[in-house]
Amino acid sequence: MNSSPWPKVEVLIEGYASQKEKDWYASPSTVLISDNGHKIIVDPGANKNQLLEALQSRDLKTEDIDIVFLTHYHLDHIFNLRLFPQATLCDGEALITDEKMSDCSGKIPGTSIQILSTPGHDNKHWSLLVKTEKGIIAIAGDVFWWQDQEEQEITLPLLLEKRDPFVQSESQSESQSESQSESQSESQSESQSESQSESQSELELRKSRQKLLDLADFIIPGHGKMFPVPN
User: Fold this and answer.
1) What are the φ and ψ backbone dihedral angles of 42, each rounded to 5 degrees?
2) Helix 165-176, helix 184-215: angle, nearest 10
3) What Cα–Cα distance (Å) separates residue 127 from each residue in 64, 80, 99, 111?
4) Cβ distance 158 to 227 under 8 Å?
5) pLDDT tens digits for range 24-66
6) What's the CA gap between 196 and 202, in Å, rounded?
7) How far apart are the first and last CA of the chain?
8) Which residues contact 67 (CB under 8 A, 6 or more apart)?
9) Contacts from 110-115 at CB under 8 Å and sequence distance 24+?
10) Furthest C-alpha separation in the chain
11) Cα 165 to the chain's mean position, in Å?
12) Mean pLDDT by 10 residues, the chain (231 residues)
């Protein structure tokens, strides 16, 4: 039990992501927060065995987790929700217990944990700020993430400008799904609209990154190692 007056943040699983041919093998950074009597899992991920082992090593069962927070709804981040049927579910907009839904924008109820809207990687994406004894920790979801083979280059310019392939691939996917029967002028118009939408997503992602870099002392990325915010 956390006897400290400060919230405690533990990385249960360090997020990983690798692509082999057309398949992805990925599970995010899964984080345990202990605050004000609550046990909160952030992004339960997709690796069932690894998560259960991490909980067991801390003498915890899935039933001990009373809140699960989701940074966004990509499947690699949410698949293990099935392990916590008793938990209250929270994202950046609502908290749901059974059929009861309540507002939880701004803060996870009953805790000191701040919720921030951080779109870009996904339109509905949230991050958490936790004030701990060692400093402010941002649990960033996929605002920041790296593939396994990538080097984590921790400088402000590189952190802000790092390309997120999923921001582009979503727009490309939309482009590929356009009806082939549309006229050339209609296609050109839609292509321009998609380009603008993609640019808007990239702009939002950069703003979200800047927000977390401005507010946090340490950042836990969606996939990769926790890192100190550079000066």
Assistant:
1) -105, 125
2) 160
3) 23, 19, 25, 15
4) no
5) 999 999 999 999 999 999 999 999 999 999 999 999 999 999 9
6) 10
7) 34
8) 38, 39, 40, 41, 87, 88, 89, 90, 108
9) 110/36, 110/37, 110/38, 111/7, 111/33, 111/35, 111/36, 111/38, 111/40, 112/7, 112/35, 112/36, 113/7, 113/33, 113/35, 113/40
10) 67
11) 15
12) 82 96 95 97 98 98 97 97 96 90 89 96 96 97 97 96 78 45 46 55 95 98 98 87
CB 32 within 8 A of CB 69: no
Name the pTM for this structure. 0.86
Q: Using CB atoms within 10 A of its CB, is residue 54 exposed (0-12), middle (13-18) or buried (19+)?
A: middle
d(C-alpha 106, C-alpha 142), whole Å: 19
Number of H helices and E strands in the chain, helices first, is 5, 14
- According to DSSP, the residues that pair with 228 across neighbouring strands are 218
Which residue ranges form the domains of the chain, and what is each CATH number? 8-153+203-228 (3.60.15.10)
CA angle 160, 46, 154 (to 5 degrees): 20
Report how far residue 222's alpha carbon sits from residue 17's, in angstroms, rounded to the nearest whole number.
9
- Joined together, the tokens standing for residue 161 give 């400008």
